[in-house]
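Pasting two entries for a bug report.
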Amino acid sequence: GAYEVGPTYYVYLMYKQFGTRMLAANTESDVRVYAARREDGAVTILLVNWATQARFLNIDIDGLSVADSEAQITDFTENGGVVTSTELLDDDFLQTLEPRSIRLLVLPARP
């Protein structure tokens, strides 16, 4: 028989990429922000939007400058969709989150 991949599968893929050393990050009422540094020096940022509406959020992580960083982004949507993209970040670090979604950003280590 065929197996269907459920949301739990994608959660494990996402956590596999997440770092091990937690960093301080801002959080708002319906949006949770988690950040960590991986052993390879990359910074991972997990954004969780619990709201039923889109949210716009300026990300602030202690000691992290994201200007000119090229982030690998993976979006996990409520309906089980997964979209991967690359985005050049600027100092504002404004992110738009779809309703009831999870976004994982991976910023490569800086030399």
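Entry 2 (this is the one that rendered wrong in the viewer):
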Amino acid sequence: LLQGADIICEAFDVAECKAMLINLALEKMPDKYIVAASGMAGLGTANSIHTRKLTKRFYLCGDEKSDVKDTIGLVASRVCVCASHQAHMVLRIISEKGKGSNRFCRFLLR
């Protein structure tokens, strides 16, 4: 399923599923970019959501603190902010990979 992908954008709700996908990708697919999310639950400020580069090809979006079990649960506005961080990071990766080649830019403009 992921063989043809250059970028894996993780969007699981269950922590164990997130960990399984990320660990698999890091161990078995080191050439893939991973953009994952952690920490978007509750009513905390959306300004605490950020994107952090953990390794050369692994980015984490979220506040890295909030947990569904410790808050009122997922709130759409914070989920949207986090998802936007992920989408923006994917676009940045595509843009960087496409430098010197218009192939990726043409794909985005279709």
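Dev reply: Rendering is fixed now. As a check, the viewer should reflect this: The chain has three helices and four strands.
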